[in-house]
Amino acid sequence: MAIMSAAGLVLIGQLVRWQVLEHHRFVAWAEAEHQDELVIPARRGEIRDATGHMLATDLIEYDISASPKIITDPAATADRLAPVLDMPRNEILQLLTADKPWVPLKNKVPQSVGETILGWDVVGLLAESRSVRVYPEGRMGAHMLGFVNNNGNGFYGVEGYYDNMLNGSPGLQAGERSPFGDLIPLGVSRFVPPESGPTLYLTVDRGVQYVAETELEDAVKRYGAQSGSVVVIQPKTGAILALAGFPNYDPNNYGVSNEYLFSNPTVSEQYEPGSVFKIVTMAAGLDAGVVGHMGTIYDGGTIEVGGRVIYNWDRQSHGEVDMTDVLAKSLNVGVAQVAVALGKERFYTYLRRFGFGQLTEVDLSNEGPGTLKTPKEANWHESDLGTNSFGQGIAVTPVQIAAAIGAVANEGLLMKPYIVQRIVDDDRQVEVQPTVIRRAVSAETAKKLTDMLVEAMERAESPARLPGYRVAGKTGTAEIPVPGGYHPTLTLSSFAGYLPADDPELLILVIIDRPTTSRWGSETAAPTFKRIAEQLVMLLNILPDDVRQTVDTEGNPQLSLNGGN
Amino acid sequence: MSSNTMISLRPENVIRQLPWRLGSKAALGFILILAIFSLVGWLYLTNASTVTATSYRIDELRFELDQVRNQNATLILEIAELEALDRVEARASELGYGPATEIQYLTVDNYPASTEPVEAAAQVVYIENSVDDYIDDVEQPSWWQEKLDMMAAWLEGRELEPLTQ
User: Fold this and answer.
1) Maximum C-alpha span of chain B
2) What phi-psi label fits residue A315: left (phi over 0), alpha (psi between -120 and 50 degrees) or beta?
3) Considering the domain boundaries, does residue B161 fall inside one?
4) Where are the domains of chain A?
């Protein structure tokens, strides 16, 4: 009797626990048995160029598999599958008769094949769809676009920077399900449709990008270089028209590429700019009034700054030279005198105004800030004032230097570079506006310097000159830092220029890394600049100076007809 | 004890004599209720089967819609691949086209074309700071420092500024 009473008490106790104390847990457990939630992935937003051409989109592919134990007629199924999957019939039959609960048959089959198999409705045959990112232009624009991995996560470039936005919002299908997993129509259910990611329209024109990439690849091969980069921007707005890096990779098959190729060299890799940087030093000197554009200085061939002796690239003294000659002959001693005259405070203030040592905040993933030591920092040395003046001991990213020189082209206003022009969703459209970061130098200084750069190119008979157009630009030949100093022979050659000089539509920066046929920027980067520029003026319908000025003075709207022969 | 009660075993008599036999009104009521329940049941089942069928149809249509969307996306992708510039260039070369080497511009008076430059449409959104602003992280020389620099320059026999005019 006592045993029965005890058993009764235990039973009552358990009943109280199940029915009262842990009521909610058991209800939730029961619901979980027949309630189900299916997350419906959202379609990732497309990326298109400025003209609307598709650069990245999603494609549906299917993975085909089977559960051999529930396939009733393996032989007939193999007969049907063989021609569709383009696989030997015997191989399929072997898989379908394997003693396994599940076997993969073929992955990544096209959408049409997957839907054909689904249409057969064969029990035990599975066709699972998945989204794959596709880049119809292949390698073109790989660095600026980035890629998307198998989990749908974007990396590098636009894909990386706008990953969250492009992903959209996944949908949800929730409700009571039958033992076979089908939604019970009369049960309580909920359906939230997925929201696709918006379409991004870039500022990049794929024609400009194509020219930049083909010419860059040609230049890297022609000059026996290791790599190279090209940046093309519209200086008045900061809109990026092309970003090219070579070698590049195919984002459709990123898995077979070396990981080091993924990094976008135009925003992530920093380099010592060399003599291209003299544009910035000269802009600072002119703006502060320590040099006049018509003024002269004496170049004795050397100058000592902070205990370090600075030489010209040719180790020669050029005597009395004007400031345009300093640019034309690319005299290190000349610009070092300008920097010394400015003084460290003003010099570095100007460098900051031009955006060095800071992110440009371009809308691309993995941007680097470059390296700028200022007098406030412990590792800054007085001699840095001299070496920094001609682009040594300072590291910049290509986009950073392009933006800085773009400020000179844009009447002294530093623009924020940007690559997404428009974001289009189902019911809204956001247009990205150009953004002025700050004024780097006065409009008058910028105008004077532009004239000096044009004149300097004429005096130096630069191979970057383009017939019919006034081009303002500067070559650079930077030594490559190695542990303990600089590499004795290898250089990084570059050219930055903009045109038409009086009303700049294009700024092109060409960087050729470690050319072997010639170490000089004037013999490698400058001709590459010209080859790119002469195609872009045609592509973008930028009129030659005389045609444009005729139109301007007469005030007539005009039609330009392009004729090639 | 004897009983005068006659029990007839004829079926009609048996039915008539059953204790739960209903009156004709009650029977009518019962049939009416049964009919109403049957009607409600039939309506429910019809409705449920319609809902179920519609639900499956919606699922099918959703699936079809997805398929059509995907097919559309595939076709758009095919167009994009066919328009890819390397392919276009290769095809143009096959057809004997090459890059333009010379351009001739003709000026046509009063041609109704817009001469507004592209950038005119662009609107500057803000200016972060003006030309007079200093950048915070660069130390500016104090008044005394400037005078000392000038003194040092004078002692060294060099002009601090300007370098040229």
Assistant:
1) 161
2) left
3) no
4) 206-554
**Bond prior to A500 in cis (omega within 30° of 0):** yes
DSSP state of B11: H
* B124 occurs within a structural domain: no
ipTM of the complex: 0.74
Amino acid at residue number A531: R
Q: What pLDDT, on a 0 to 100 scale, did the predictor assign at position B21?
A: 63
Nearest to B122 among A183, A433, A538 (CB): A433
Our count of domains for chain B comes to 1
Of chain A, the end-to-end C-alpha distance in Å amounts to 115
pLDDT exceeds cutoff 90 at A296:
no
How far, CA to CA in Å, does A84 sit from each of A63, A88, A299, B68? 13, 10, 78, 21
pLDDT tens digit string along B63-119? 888 888 888 888 999 999 999 998 999 999 999 998 877 777 776 776 665 555 444
Are B163 and A337 inside 8 Å of each other by CB? yes
How do residues A257-287 score in pLDDT, each as one tens digit? 999 999 999 999 999 999 999 999 999 999 9
- Within 8 A of B70 by CB-CB distance, chain A residues are 60, 111
Q: If you compute the radius of gyration of chain B from its CA atoms, what whole number of angstroms results? A: 51
Is residue B29 domain-resident?
Answer: yes
Place of tokens 């180790």: A315
- Return the beta strands (E) in B59-162 as ranges: 127-129
| Type of residue at A72 | T
Candidates B59, B102, B161; nearest CB to A290: B161
Q: What is the DSSP letter of A489?
A: E
Tokens 């198998």, located at residue: A150
Q: Which two tokens stand for residue A516?
A: 């072997």
Where in the sequence is the domain holding B50, given as residue range(s)?
25-94
Chain B residues closer than 8 Å to A323 by CB: 164
Query: Position of tokens 């599958």?
Result: A81
DSSP for A178-196? Answer: -TTSPBPTTS-EEEE--BP
**Is residue A391 left, alpha or beta, with left meaning phi > 0 and alpha meaning psi from -120 to 50?**
left
Residue environment code for A491-521, b if the CB has 16+ CB neighbours within 10 A, otherwise e: bbbbbbbbbbbebbbbbbbbbbbbbeeebeb
Phi, psi of A231 (to 5 degrees): -120, 130
What is A206-554's CATH topology? Beta-lactamase (3.40.710)
User: What is the distance between the alpha carbons of residues A401 and A371, in angstroms, rounded to a whole number?
Assistant: 12
pLDDT of residue B125: 46
Residue holding tokens 């939230």? A192
What angle in degrees, to the nearest 10, is found between the helix axes of A398-409 and A278-288?
40
Q: Which residue of A140, A375, A439 is in closest CB contact with B131?
A: A439
Whether B110 and A345 lie within 8 Å, measured CB to CB: no
Tokens encoding A344: 């460290």
Q: Does A376 touch chain B (CB under 8 A)?
A: yes
Q: DSSP assignment, residue A371?
A: B
Q: Is B84 domain-assigned? A: yes
For residues A386 and A303, is the Cβ–Cβ distance under 8 A? Answer: yes
Answer whether A433's CB lies under 8 Å from B123's CB: yes
User: Which of A43, A212, A199, A233 has its CA nearest to residue A139?
Assistant: A212
A182 confidence band (pLDDT: 50, 70, 90): low
Here the tokens at position A420 are 């997404």
Residue in the block written with tokens 């009919």: B35
